[in-house]
Amino acid sequence: MVLYLIIIAIGVISVASLNIFLNPLYHDKWWLYIIFTLALTIIVIVIDALVALIIRKLPEKWFQKDYWFTRTSEKELKFYTFLGVQKWKDYIPELGSFTGFHKNKVVNPFDNEYIARFILEARYGIAIHLMSVPTSFLIILLDWKMYLGQSNIWLTIALPIAVVNAILIVLPAFILKYNLPRLLRIYNNNIELQKQKEARRKAKENN
Hints:
Radius of gyration: 23 Å
Number of helices: 6
Helix content: 55-70%
Order of helices and strands: HHHHHH
Structural class: mainly alpha
Largest sheet: none
Distance between the termini: 58 Å
C-alpha cells in the first residue's frame, strides 16, 4: 500500500507541476491545476470503489464458473512470467481486509472449502480490476469545457491520471490470473486425494 501511495503522490505532483509550468490555459490561476489534479484523483478512486461495490453485490454463482475473462491461457501465463509477476507481486497491495478474505498467500492448501472460497474471491477480484480499467477513463468526460473547445484539462490532467490509475488497478488482476491456475490444480488434486482415501477406506472395509 505504501508503494501505491508513493506512486499516486508522485503522479499528482508531476501532473500538477507540468500543467503549472507548461499549460497556458490558466496561467493567471495556476492553483486551479492543483485543484483539478487532486479532484480528479479523488474522483477516479471513488469510481474504482463504486465498481468494486457493484461487482461484489453480484451473485456468487456468477463467479463459480470459469468464464473467459477469468481463464488464464498458456500464452497469458507466459506473459505474466515474462513480466516477472512472481518477483513483484508481494509489493502490490492486497485489499482482502475489505472482504474478510486475504488472497496474498494460500493458508490451508488441503482444505477444499477454503480453496473454493479463494478461487471465488480471485474471480471477483479479476472482474473488479479488469472492469476498473476502462471506467478509469470516465473522468475525461468531466472536462465539460472541452466540448466547447475551451479546455485541454481532459488531455493534460484527466488522461494521465486515468492511465496511471489503470496501470495500478490492472496489476492485481495480473497477479490473480497468474495464481488462479495453481489454485485450480490444488482444488482438483485435493479431490483426487479424497477419492483415493475413500477408495482405500472401502478396500479396508471389504477386507
